[in-house]
Amino acid sequence: MGPPGACTAPALPAVGDGYPQGMNNRSENLEHHLDRHLVEELAQVARETVRDELREQTRRQRRTALLYAASGAAALYAGAAVALAVGLALASGLPGWAAALITAALLGVVAYGLRGAAHGRHAPHPPHRVVGGSAPAAPPSGLGMPYPPMPQNPPDVPRHRA
Predict the structure, then answer these.
(1) Would you say 17 and 27 are in contact if contact means Cβ atoms under 8 Å apart?
(2) Which of 29, 64, 93, 103 would you call most buried, defined as having the most Cβ atoms within 10 angstroms of its Cβ?
(3) d(CA 132, CA 69)
(4) Rounded to whole angstroms, how far apart are CA atoms 162 and 157?
(5) Which InterPro entries would you find in this protein's record (predicted)?
């Protein structure tokens, strides 16, 4: 017998890495289970973090969109009030229909100017064909075969006799 309190169970035979036989499989299963559990837990934390961040960004963007919409509505009413004032001022010396027509024309000019200002930011489109130019030796993408040479004379077209 051994010292008091010592385990008297028979020793399990050791396998290659020093663990008793059967213990190696259990530890691998435990590690696999813990790894899978840790990955699931980390994924859950990441999902919650991303969800909270997206919720906060959405809340801020919703508030910004609401403020833009409110400012647009206020600007629309202000523009209508200015158009009414211009029409009434013109109507004091002109018939009502003429004042309305002039006011509409002024609003059309302003709309056209604003449209031009919006389109002025974009670069103009390059022409699709250069007059007097020749086709490039290869497609602009740099892929594929070069263009076939341009014939000197137009192709002969058979003429139908009536």
Answers:
(1) no
(2) 103
(3) 51
(4) 16
(5) Phage_holin_3_6 (IPR009937)
Rg (CA), the chain: 41
SS3 14: strand
pTM here is: 0.40
List phi, psi (to 5°) of 13. -65, 140
| Residue 129 zone, left/alpha/beta (φ > 0; ψ -120 to 50; rest) | beta
Residue 81 has what DSSP assignment? H
Using CA atoms, how far residue 66 sits from 60, 79, 80, in Å, is 10, 20, 21
Buried b (16+ CB within 10 A) or exposed e, 49-74: eeeeeeeeeeeeeeeeeeeeeeeeee
- Is the pLDDT assigned to residue 31 strictly greater than 60? yes
Rounded to an integer, what distance in angstroms lies between the CA atom of residue 150 and that of residue 27? 77
For the segment 128-150, the average pLDDT, to the nearest whole number, is 63
Contact 51, 44 (CB under 8 A): no
In whole angstroms, what is the distance from residue 10 CA to residue 37 CA? Answer: 34
What is the distance in angstroms between the CA of the first residue and the CA of the last residue of the chain? 127
